[in-house]
């Protein structure tokens, strides 16, 4: 009786999943392992005939250089961490996608790290980025806490922060204050006097800046203004805040929403529960210009943040930092454009 493994003539699954090695290329080409290494090392010396044999063998076998292993040996990598909490939500998702595209364009390997919302998840994300020797880290607005940034800085990893301010880090920021003040002025000049701003209890830097700038501008114009907040800066947050606003005896005639997802929730409550007409009874401006803003159901007037522009600015700052680690912190500010649709026409 044979208790050994049955050989059915098929390649074992484990072997099928192995990548082609440089040693296999050397055997196929009839050259040394070092000749293969030199062939794929920019600037290394190798005879033309040897190079041709190696490249032909590599193509026949489907061989690709193990960049990760090469980076580990050199104590560096092309990995760049894109760090966010809830990266699938709203503008953050489009910004993460634009960052990935820009990083791949420069030959980097983007890694999307969802920090989660618990201490354990945050710790796991920190260990992964440090352990894999990420070339740089790009952190999106609102996440993670300062402890994450401090750990990256202690390990000497270049850091670019989008949408928030942190000491000793390079920044890309939207013109939140400029846009919010413009929204208040546009409402006032169109004859709207009962204004409201909707933010969230999440308290992210961008949301807080938009709330406070709108509130200050509206009050300086002499308009009455109220603040409403949902639990988070998402659709449900807009629903919750909208219900609170419309339960009051004196309802607003114009609302500035700290992002588009909040605006969508507000608009649905305004139409379906409060029976208000938009924009006749209620004018609404959002922020971000996510693709859904142009949907026929919403046609939302909103401030556009261009995710590709912000991504390109962030990658440029990262490259500057890699070239000159001791340069003083730099900052880029991107002023949003007001996109006019049906929810409010100044």
UniProtKB/TrEMBL annotation:
One of its GO terms (molecular function) is DNA-binding transcription factor activity. The keyword Transcription applies. Coiled coil: none annotated. Pfam families: LacI (PF00356), Peripla_BP_3 (PF13377). InterPro entries: HTH_LacI (IPR000843), LacI/GalR-like_sensor (IPR046335), Lambda_DNA-bd_dom_sf (IPR010982), Peripla_BP_I (IPR028082). Keywords: DNA-binding, Plasmid, Transcription, Transcription regulation. Residues 20-74 form the HTH lacI-type domain. This is LacI family DNA-binding transcriptional regulator. It comes from Rhizobium acidisoli.
């Amino acid at each position: 009786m044979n208790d050994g493994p049955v050989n059915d003539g098929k390649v074992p699954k484990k072997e099928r999943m192995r990548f082609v090695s440089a040693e296999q290329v050397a055997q196929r080409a009839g050259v040394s392992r070092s000749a293969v290494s030199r062939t794929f090392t920019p600037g290394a010396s190798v005879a033309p005939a040897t190079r041709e044999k190696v490249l032909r063998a590599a193509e026949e076998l489907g061989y690709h250089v193990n960049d990760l292993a090469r980076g580990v040996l050199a104590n560096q990598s092309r990995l760049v961490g894109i760090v966010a909490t809830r990266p699938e939500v709203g503008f953050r998702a489009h910004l993460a996608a634009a960052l990935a595209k820009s990083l791949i364009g420069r030959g980097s390997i983007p890694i999307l790290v969802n920090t989660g919302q618990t201490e354990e998840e945050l710790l796991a994300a920190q260990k992964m980025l440090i352990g894999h020797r990420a070339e740089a880290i790009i952190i999106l607005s609102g996440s993670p806490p300062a402890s994450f940034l401090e750990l990256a800085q202690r390990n000497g990893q270049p850091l670019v922060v989008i949408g928030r301010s942190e000491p000793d880090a390079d920044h890309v920021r939207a013109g939140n204050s400029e846009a919010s003040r413009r929204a208040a002025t546009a409402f006032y000049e169109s004859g709207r006097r009962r204004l409201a701003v909707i933010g969230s209890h999440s308290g992210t830097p961008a949301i807080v800046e938009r709330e406070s700038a709108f509130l200050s501008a509206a009050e300086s114009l002499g308009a009455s203004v109220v603040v409403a907040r949902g639990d988070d800066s998402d659709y449900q947050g807009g629903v919750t805040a909208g219900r609170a606003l419309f339960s009051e005896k004196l309802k607003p005639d114009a609302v500035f929403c700290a992002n588009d997802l909040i605006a969508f929730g507000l608009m649905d409550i305004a139409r379906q529960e409060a029976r208000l007409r938009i924009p006749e009874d209620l004018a609404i401006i959002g922020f971000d210009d996510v693709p859904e803003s142009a949907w026929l159901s919403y046609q939302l007037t909103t401030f556009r943040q261009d995710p590709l522009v912000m991504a390109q600015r962030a990658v440029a700052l990262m490259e500057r930092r890699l070239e000159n680690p001791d340069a003083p912190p730099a900052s880029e500010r991107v002023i949003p454009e007001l996109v006019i649709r049906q929810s409010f026409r100044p």
